[in-house]
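Run log // design_07
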């Protein structure tokens, strides 16, 4: 299993990615494809347009200004998303994709609080508990990619997702991540938000209140200590929970419990309903590799992105919407 020590960055980090992008950009310019401004023929925003006028925050519509000298966590992905179409196509081919991932629209200025999906309520629950949902309320043709556990720590995944500007959310279990939080620190630097998936991935409804609290709030503490930020999102192992789970999660800072409407494997998708994506659907997959699946994480991403792109969806950051 590949490891990334906390003091080291994957060899192909931002510096390596920029070198690759520079070479591809030179090729695109030579073919006359790297210029252009304003709108594409299909009416979408052409992110190869010249930079915005001074004062437009971060060069990205709808983004609030940041303090001087600071950049948002997902700035690298946003930079790559602004590349000319020819460069994005070349990057997609480099990573084995037939088509470049579609670019998500700017996130909403105001987040919409999801409500608990019908049938996912708990006995004695109320509107004050974190909502449990499988789809985010939005009309944008976006879906959200989430990865659980953290057993596989493949530097190639970091490079691929960075260069292709594919956002994803990580739901981490300390039992799987504890030996290498440095890998997820690097992912966080590239725009990935670390979220809570408990300390030991136990079946929570079978535990006492105090045991659940150790699993949930203990992981809150660990992530805050190791990665510097207390999570707001929590996913219970196996998607199983009860009223105690939600009350405990709320008590230690959790505001929402996103589950999933589809699950991605290297060779297939599994669905809760029809075999189609819908605006706002959350997709689950896992940090697993050749030992369990027989293929690497990049193969998994190629498979799931084929489905997402073919159905006309872009991948957006879950944390921008909830």
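design_07 sequence
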């Amino acid at each position: 299993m590949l490891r990334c020590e906390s003091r080291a960055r994957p060899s192909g980090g931002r510096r390596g990615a920029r070198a690759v992008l520079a070479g591809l950009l030179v090729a695109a310019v030579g073919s006359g494809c790297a210029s252009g401004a304003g709108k594409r023929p299909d009416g979408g925003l052409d992110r190869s347009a010249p930079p915005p006028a001074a004062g437009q925050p971060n060069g990205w519509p709808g983004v609030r200004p940041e303090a001087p000298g600071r950049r948002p966590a997902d700035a690298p992905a946003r930079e790559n998303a602004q590349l000319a179409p020819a460069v994005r196509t070349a990057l997609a081919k480099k990573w084995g994709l037939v088509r470049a991932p579609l670019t998500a629209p700017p996130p909403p200025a105001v987040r919409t609080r999801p409500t608990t999906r019908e049938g996912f309520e708990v006995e004695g629950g109320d509107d004050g508990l974190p909502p449990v949902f499988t789809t985010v309320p939005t009309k944008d043709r976006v879906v959200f990619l989430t990865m659980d556990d953290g057993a596989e720590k493949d530097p190639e995944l970091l490079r691929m997702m960075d260069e292709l500007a594919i956002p994803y959310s990580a739901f981490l279990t300390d039992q799987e991540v504890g030996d290498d939080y440095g890998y997820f620190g690097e992912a966080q630097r590239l725009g990935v938000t670390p979220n809570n998936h408990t300390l030991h991935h136990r079946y929570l409804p079978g535990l006492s209140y105090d045991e659940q609290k150790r699993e949930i709030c203990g992981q809150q503490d660990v992530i805050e200590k190791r990665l510097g930020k207390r999570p707001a999102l929590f996913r219970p192992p196996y998607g199983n929970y009860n009223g105690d789970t939600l009350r405990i999660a709320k008590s230690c800072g959790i505001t929402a419990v996103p589950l999933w409407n589809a699950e991605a494997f290297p060779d297939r998708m599994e669905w809760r309903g029809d075999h189609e994506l819908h605006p706002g659907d959350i997709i689950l997959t896992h940090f697993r590799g050749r030992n369990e699946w027989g293929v690497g994480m990049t193969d998994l991403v190629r498979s799931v992105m084929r489905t997402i792109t073919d159905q006309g969806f872009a991948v957006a950051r879950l944390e921008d919407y909830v």
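Strands lie at 132-133, 142-149, 169-172, 193-196, 257-258, 262-265, 268-271, 282-286, 314-315.
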